[in-house]
Amino acid sequence: MAEAILQLTDLRKNFGALKATDGVSLDLRAGEIHALIGPNGAGKSTLIHQISGSLTPDGGSIRFLGQDMAGLDMAARARRGLGRSFQISSLAPEFTALRNVMLAVQARQGSSFRFLRPVASDKSLTDPAMAMLERVGLENRANVPAAELSHGERRQLEVAIALALGPKAFLLDEPMAGLGPDGSKRLTGFLDALRHEAPILLVEHDMDAVFALADRISVLVYGRVIATGTVDEIRANPEVRRAYLGDTA
Amino acid sequence: MAVSRETIANGVLALLLLVVPLLAAASGETFYITLATRIVILALAALGLNIALGLGGLVSFGHAAFFGLGGYVAGILATHAFNGEAVLFGLPATTSMPVIWLVAVLLCGLVALPIGVISLRTSGVYFIMITLAFAQMIYYFAVSWPDYGGEDGLSLYVRNTFPGVNTTQPLPYFLICLGVLATAVCLFWLLRGSRFGAALEAARQNTTRLSAVGIAPFRIKLVAFVISAMVTGLAGALFADLNRFVSPSMLSWQMSGELIVLIILGGKGRLFGPIAGAMVYVMFEYALGDITERWQLFLGLVLLGVVLFARGGLLGLVAGRARHG
After folding, report:
1. Lowest CB count within 10 Å: A25, A191, B52, B188, which one?
2. Could you state, in order of their start, the residue ranges of all structural domains in chain A?
3. ipTM of this predicted structure
4. How distant is the Cα of A38 from the closest Cα of chain B, in angstroms?
């Protein structure tokens, strides 16, 4: 069995009386896509926020590359190799697509406390950033401000930024959200190849994509993982069918 | 590459700022040189604030604290030097501008650091209020400290000195101030285009995005706040020498507001925004101030117009929307 890159153990988070995360344990192994599914309100976003560092768990542990992530903020986790995309596109709207990616390249290279050298002509930033835009098929839109990109293009840009970080693991929060069938299909093909660069923890509502991509699936209901397994195991699991897939499977 | 309209507008402003005082000097109208010096110094103060406010989106309502501190550094050092006394711990006082500037810049940086560390834990309206609170603390301290004039302020007997220049003459002093402003404009331009500038502008637009790529927004904002305070402090030292007078009014919240107004008028985040803003402000003050004490009413109307119809400021009207390459 491949070693775990990301390991959650008995993670807990309450909002008042609501147990948003209720003893979640799961892991992400090298080379795999691990999909996290569950009905609305199951606590998927809460879980992602705890992994990425924007929420502090009440209990349990998150280990990434063998290191406990407790006490590290979002920026520190990103520097250690956790590349995330957001459910709702989170970009610098006034920056062009290229400059959005350049920011990630700059962050990966290290210090941002350089005050004099212009970034616009810095090939060590523009070249890798352009390469990432080409990978997601956005090279023709490089000089368009993020705010003027279409919804689908913004999703692509999110992925390009995550790629530019050269992460050790991807945390993708509904990357297909709002994409048309064509866009979904293209992104599915793209993620399929991406897993060999770094494993992906994928939160996704698009079941076609999940079943096409996932090596393993975990099903989250009311803050608990009720099942983890391969696509076939999950499809066959009676508890999952009742809780979640009931009307579609 | 085509020259943008903003670059042309900037060129025109720079030319005006140089040529008008030279013409005034040639025709012996020294008053206009003093007016131009006032524009230059206020522009420098606002340029400092523009780093925090324009680039970083940090609406500091307490930058008068740094403006005033810079002024008091010039006033206090010069007073002690005039009396032939030491300042603190036997350190000699001085009337040399470069030394005064250095002290003013360093002191403002030192004061801005803890203020920034505390204020930057908040954002939005709370940031505005907490920076105001710090500035008011320093204001009341100055008012209640009798050694340096308290409420009445502190007069400088002679303008401080600059190696090789007769600073008591209006034109040489204007040129010194213009040189400082030109340097600051260049540094602002470099900073905005640098990696630090990219991170700072990203922090303004979306702090979560900045964190998600692994750059901690807090440190970026803190450094910007400190640099911003240092530049405004330097302007304060120049202002004290221009008027040969320092008083708590330089530390007042009205002064903080004035600096914000200059930036909004000219165009926030723009290279020449503070300069355009300061020109309009001082012109209004001069042209209408003779006619009515309530000239600020008319400035208010212009500001209202800019805020409602020209969000990019007056430079934005001329040059169009700012684009990030």
Report:
1. A25
2. 1-81+167-249, 95-166
3. 0.89
4. 25
